[in-house]
Fold Putative gluconeogenesis factor.
Amino acid sequence: MRPHFKWLAPGMNLKRWLLLFALGVLLFSLGLAIVFNYQYIGMLENAIFLWVYRLTGQYLSTGMILVGMGIVTAGVVTMAYATRKLILSIISVLLPEGSNGLINLIYEKRRLNRGPSVVVLGGGTGLSVLLRGIKKATDNITAIVTVGDDGGSSGRIRSDLGMIPPGDLRRCLVALADTEPMMEKLFEHRFGGNGGLAGHNFGNLFIAAMNEVQGDVELALQASSKVLAVRGQVLPATTEAIRLSATMCDGSVIEGESNIPLCGKCIDHVGILPEDVLPVPSAVAAIREADACILGPGSLYTSVLPNLLVRGIADELRRTKAVKIYICNVMTQPGETDGYSASRHVKAILDHVGPGVIDYVVVNAQTVAPVLRDRYATQGAVPVEADIEAIEALGVRAVKANIINETDLVRHDPERLSHTIMDMVVKLGGKSERVRLLDYYLQEEEGRQR
């Protein structure tokens, strides 16, 4: 869409005010006519009649209509020109990019504000990768983050301050941030040296400090979101301290998220301690109002499932009318999903929380480069097999897509993954106003690319 026509795009909230401005000019003109005596208007009309008569030799009603339309057009053009000059005068100070920068800014903000409501559940690096892509399609994002981490900086803060671990929460805040690169770099900075701060992440310490200032972790996340200009909201699955527990295939029990992948045993099932922790009410409300609920990507047993084990979360997923999508990992994870196919990932979720929490699973269809396959093989990881028939035998529909970005690592590509998810939301997520607007913008984007 050309910049000038973006002013008229749906959802811009500008057309109504332009019409109101025109009405105001009309009322202003009528008021002036009354104040200065309406007879002057009659005198002007007679003068125009006389002018038309001199040009044509007769009084023509059609000619008067044309003259009237000409005056109306001149008025509209004058109003538009004056308004444009006024706006340009203001934005020349505020925006170096000029008027195109302003309209693009307004257009993007309105588009994102009216985007679909998306809830993402998970943790770890995978969730932050997805959020970086999703935030380009909508501002109505809720990230529900697992809080079972007990290692590294997060584990130390959890132990020392008695708060939920901030690490995954920080990653999601940074991923959804719309701020200066230096601020993002600062929040990801990890202290070196050998002192008490060694190994701590600045963003983790910031959230911990904000938690003490606000006295509540949700308020702390809201305040942190303002600092980072976060799009959407980041919420913990629960505000209570939980600990992961895994029962292995040999019957042994391993406690602690950081210990589970290190024991080198096959996982039978996982749980959380205590078992009856309550979810954050705003997280439950977000699931109820969502157009789409997305699980993953991320570690199956230590990032995705812990959220679903919080009391009430799985039940809300079953009840919601939102389309429910699970994003399967691209590579197996040593110590967690050794030898797992895509269907086995799905089966593990259904075995833990029952059916109805997944409608669709997105699996990678892109071939992993041989050099990367060999590198991952040395670590015990292989590409996850996309066994479509086995997935659909579980009552879940499978969607294959090219969604990875290969550099030194094999990871989901934020933009490809986001485009796949948004396309599914349009086709499968109902016909709410937010979804219809998303469809409009996606079609417009495809038209530009063609």
